[in-house]
């Protein structure tokens, strides 16, 4: 192929590769979350990446355009399929399909990739990982309070200190009362209500002025893209913003402020009562300083029907260029009593919480949480190939190490010793095995400790000293190979 015909190597926008270090950190993080969820009695289940589009239903990010908001395609039988955009809608389908066989309430957790066909940007990906926990079949707000407490426990298990995070709680019924009061209570105004929800959901990022624009005619972002607004009147905008600013000095004060905002709305007052009950439950368990009622939390998806919550990081760090970084929300959820009921004749209450794994991982790496920044596993021991006609002998050494449970590999390239040593360094190998003709005649191998050698190299001034010292390199008989390598590994990795 000519140079002009070469394909450019590039990942699609909004998608990212993950390195071995990323994978290792993620696995440790997922293990800690799983342990926390299981402590609360949740059990794992896995659903497919792909669902029938009608199973996701009216809750698609953009229901009028099947391939906007979600990634969709038609099957050979002309059925529309979509990549899941969260883990909640697939759970609703799974519970409905297996309803009679499942214990109720049904407590499950799921972890996996989700996909959004949206405009990517800094920290905004089209593919990202979530870790959910849900209780299906429990109508009591005690289930919501428990989810909030579990969210707090999970963040602490991941290395966050109290004061570095907060679990914020609100209730969509309270907002429904406000929307009724400004004339948006009808079924025919569902689209306008959703626009209001998504505008409020951006409050922490855009501030009151930006949200006010989205509640009105619309807003143009920094790139010049225009987002159409909810077309509310100035008086209605003022009332919605007053709702988001109703936070009091404590949870009890916030509830009282919300009662005033909703006025005589029965639905709004019901939501305020539920918030008061959640506040009492978390206080009884000692979580009142970590689970806070905040009217600014609404969540952007339409299927929430009651309490909604967000896990927000409160600390600020600096990026590599010294600029301040604040992560904000790293998880959220709420009650979705109508979602499972779409598949069944009877109503099925449900509530759940989702951690944004990718975003939280970045935050944990910033604060050097031991969960994600723990000591890395060593790379494989590399057996160098000094004589090409002796590959079988070198392979025998590799096999002996592997059978002893030691990661090992044979150098499979065609370069000389210097390049092989550089390769071992790049593989983060703790040591290399060297056997030339002289060592073979004596029945020995040379073991070069690369970690100790690097330390010694820093202290040795001249090349002559280096050759004389031959730092961290020992000869052992071939039958002592495994034992000697184990000594190197235990010295550095315990």
Roughly how many Å is the radius of gyration?
29 Å
Number-wise, the strands total: 18
How are the strands ordered across the major sheet? 1-5-6-13-12-11-7-10
User: What number is the mean pLDDT?
Assistant: 88
**CATH superfamily membership of the largest domain, which one?**
Bira Bifunctional Protein, Domain 2
- Tell me the major beta sheet: 8 strands, mixed
Structural class assignment? alpha+beta
Enzyme class: ligase
Keywords: Aminoacyl-tRNA synthetase, ATP-binding, Cytoplasm, Ligase, Nucleotide-binding, Protein biosynthesis
Catalytic activity: tRNA(His) + L-histidine + ATP = L-histidyl-tRNA(His) + AMP + diphosphate + H(+)
Family: Belongs to the class-II aminoacyl-tRNA synthetase family.
Describe this structure in words.
With 494 residues, this protein is of the alpha+beta class. Helix content is 40%, strand content 20%. The protein has helices spanning 20-39, 53-56, 88-97, 142-157, 172-181, 190-200, 203-215, 234-244, 251-262, 266-284, 357-366, 370-373, 391-403, 417-426, 437-442, 450-459, 463-469, 481-493; strands spanning 43-44, 50-52, 72-74, 80-83, 106-115, 127-136, 165-171, 218-220, 226-228, 291-293, 307-318, 324-335, 350-356, 381-383, 408-410, 431-434, 444-449, 473-477. The strands form 4 sheets. It has an 8-stranded mixed beta sheet with strand order 1-5-6-13-12-11-7-10. The protein has a 5-stranded mixed beta sheet with strand order 15-14-16-17-18. Mean pLDDT is 88; it is low at 61-67. L-histidine binds at residues 86-88, 116, 130, 134, 299, 303-304. Its EC number is 6.1.1.21. Homodimer.
